[in-house]
Design a protein that fits this description.
Chain lengths: 340, 340
DNA sequence: CTGTTAGCGCATTCAC
DNA sequence: GTGAATGCGCTAACAG
């Protein structure tokens, strides 16, 4: 029976009621094999009866490691952090590790504050999740625990950073359009202040160059909105009516492009193929037609970040520093390949 | 100077180097006033010099409370949990409390597993965040810490639950349409298996009845997608061409309705006013025109959940059990009121 | 196989 | 003002 309102029973309570010593009770509960089966059964029965819950605080204090990690996000609102969070929580959860969630709200002071708090709580490692793929300031070296930067890499090459490979994503998108037989390809992108925008363009231009084809018109940059997608598509199609495919730097842009194509009477994908980026399901699966997109595989990125932290904890020397670019995937839907 | 790779210094290190006793060092660092100023200064200087970080584990063990809470989500993917999470993290963060994040992935076994882990870690309270507003199974009474259910209320009225007031939201939506001079209002809703769908309809019908007006046609239910929004709007407008406003059970539905209206040559908001639900910014601010919607105020719900946990921790008797329905807000945009 | 002892790092009595 | 002792709950050595 548990009593509401407090954590009542301790290991010594169990020991007393089972008529054994503290040490024996501990061994019995922890599955050590130097305990008689009968004794173990008695201890377990008592523990269950009085609702004993071992105190991880005491255990951690003794063990010198807490079995917790800090997950520090620079901004929870962004839609990119959630999947990363899920991946990390998933990977850690399986390993009996619990996750402290901190949100710095894009504020450096608050970040420092949270960092202190995490160290106070003796986390065994920290994952820092940024909201853009642009490099962010390092938390600094000399921290007593391993730190892995996810999505936004650290600006210090001595740190360990993980970020999706946007250049490869750009290449992947263009190569898919080429594979679909398109040759007159335009490019609409988002906010030019984002590294993600430029990286995706870079990859796209590489793939086109490899195929010996030019981009139709210039890459168009402004902001990550459907509005801009609509407007940019109108400009692009007015100036280059021959265009048979448009690559977009985000799914929002792509949805705007779909709208404009519809308004102008261009069929998608027959007349124009459209490909987005991010594979954000609300946008990709609800559009007409559904949107082909590049999936940055963020959940896997979160898992990998967790794995790296584990690695670094188990073997402090093993951390491979520098930025690793993780592979992205192509999700083909109706906006590039006609449905039957 | 901190040494990488471990948490090196302890309070006794500080005491030694400052030539004081453990007790004095402790008092100095914790701002107790029975310490000479000179001594305190010396201790603080040493602590800073060797990069002393107090061990919250030890402190918690001694204090009998950890200053942590558990945040258990039944499913992180849902877009409703994130704002709640943010609100809770925000409220706790200000109070020096750290948050353990657990995701049960909709699995009861995993939920039990995480619950154990949280209790092991001696959390001072737990918030359970569901993904729908339908009641969910209680974690059970007799837990040693206060539990607050957010979004999805517990099915046990003895628990403390917080959920947005969907009925009021339905009323709010209809009253806004009425205030805009609309009188022939149709209603498109999502998955009939969700309490949210029915509650919003209930509120809508209440408001119409209060105004002495009938709903045009029947409420249409199917699923929470733009596809259904498009299809339902087509049906509704074909059967009831006189309709001058459509209330939708979600923003996705509303976006579908906007598409169909456009296809059929009905102007929004001039010919038909459209109102959504959830105020999901990606959808509301990117549409043509921008979408009026009901905001369930989830961040505030998260904050309130945190406050309730605080309350229950500080004064175990004070917990008001039962389900509290939190107010929602109207966000007016161009789909009901013409922009100038 | 079982029990006794020591201590993880810290805050808190209580003497001095 | 300061310091020596006590114990939070637990596990790891050792002795029996």
């Amino acid at each position: 029976m548990k009593q509401p309102g407090s954590y009542p029973s301790t290991l010594s309570d169990v020991a007393k009621r089972a008529h054994v010593s503290l040490a024996t009770a501990s061994k019995a509960l922890n599955g050590r094999d130097d305990v008689a089966e009968a004794t173990r059964a008695r201890v377990l029965a008592v523990a269950d009866e009085i609702g004993f819950v071992p105190n991880a605080l005491a255990r951690s204090l003794l063990a010198g490691r807490s079995g917790t990690v800090g997950l520090m996000t620079s901004d929870l609102v962004g839609r990119f952090v959630l999947p990363i969070l899920m991946g990390a929580e998933d990977a850690f959860g399986a390993g009996q590790v619990n996750v402290f969630l901190c949100d710095a709200r894009g504020d450096a002071i608050r970040e420092q504050h949270h960092l202190r708090a995490l160290l106070n709580r003796r986390v065994d490692g920290i994952i820092v999740v940024g909201r853009q793929t642009d490099p962010r300031p390092s938390l600094g070296g000399g921290l007593p625990v391993p730190v892995v930067y996810a999505y936004a890499p650290s600006d210090d090459p001595a740190d360990v950073s993980l970020t999706p490979d946007n250049v490869a994503g750009g290449r992947l998108a263009i190569n898919h359009l080429l594979a679909c037989g398109r040759t007159k390809i335009g490019l609409i992108n988002g906010d030019p202040a984002y590294a993600a925008a430029h990286d995706r363009t870079t990859g796209a231009l590489e793939a086109l160059a490899a195929a010996g084809l030019p981009l139709v018109g210039q890459p168009l940059y402004s902001e990550w909105t459907e509005h801009w997608g609509r407007d940019a598509a109108a400009v692009l199609l007015a100036n280059h009516p021959e265009i048979d495919a448009i690559m977009c730097g985000s799914d929002q842009l792509a949805r705007g492009v779909l709208d404009t194509a519809r308004d102008l009477g261009r069929r998608v994908p027959e007349d124009i193929a459209v490909i987005g980026y991010d594979n954000w399901d609300v946008l990709t699966t609800n559009s007409r037609p559904e949107l082909t997109s590049i999936d940055p595989n963020l959940q896997e990125l979160g898992r990998e970040a967790a794995r790296r932290v584990f690695q670094a904890i188990d073997d402090a020397g093993a951390r491979r520093s520098g930025t690793t670019y993780l592979p992205v995937r192509l999700m083909i839907r109706g906006s590039t390949v006609p449905r039957r």
